[in-house]
Amino acid sequence: MISNCVGKIFSVLENKVLANISHQGGHLMGAKRKAAEKRNSKKGYNNVVDIKPFQKPSKQVNILPRNRNQESYVLSLLDETKDIVFGIGPAGTGKTLLAVQVAVKMFKEGAVDKIIVTRPAVSVDEDLGFLPGTLEEKMAPWTRPIFDVLKEYFSAAEITGMIQEGIIEISPLAYMRGRTFKRSFILADEMQNATPNQMKMLLTRLGEESMMAVTGDLNQADRLKDNGLIDFTNRLETSNQSCLDIVHFEQGDIERHAAVKAVLQVYGDE
To answer: How far is CA 146 from CA 6, 73, 209, in A?
Structure first.
């Protein structure tokens, strides 16, 4: 009986000692851990590694006009009271470049949700339907200058994704009929080949909180008779419409290469 009691007493004492050691050890380990964390925090790091995915910095849109007409064009495009702005003049004056830059700027700032690019599909002696590929692939040769500008602000993958999601839309002029674009920047490029009916159809596609830039070079027109750009600009010159504006570029506004200006002088394009 005594031996059994003594055995139980020793067993109880042993358990208490082990529990006490474990308890103290826990406190010691906790204290050591806290001390280590305190030292690490002073050194500016901790044991947790927070790995964040790499994010490509968004390139800011800095629009830098190089002459007075370019400045007037950009100011008109950014003017909230101007809904449709025409940029008319020779190649190399920045009509398309500046319009795309303004479109990207407005998109990045949340002023518009979509960028719509349209133009007469081809010159009068060609047919878009005979070209191979999807609609975007068929339009690619004529919209490449626009995408060259877009690539300065978005990666190729981003542009592809934006096209798939409908944020960037490439559409031949003939496909614009019956549509209305809201919260969109519409760039109608190379419109010197549009007919009067096509021009009227295009200009009436504008929806709420949208704006449109229309570019063209009458010296590169494939059609001079029934030319929609000539027809509308002539009408606009005699009509007082504050929401519409025209900026005329001249040969002196060419900013590409000095040789381009010389070539145009040789051809007599004033």
So the answer is: 95, 17, 23
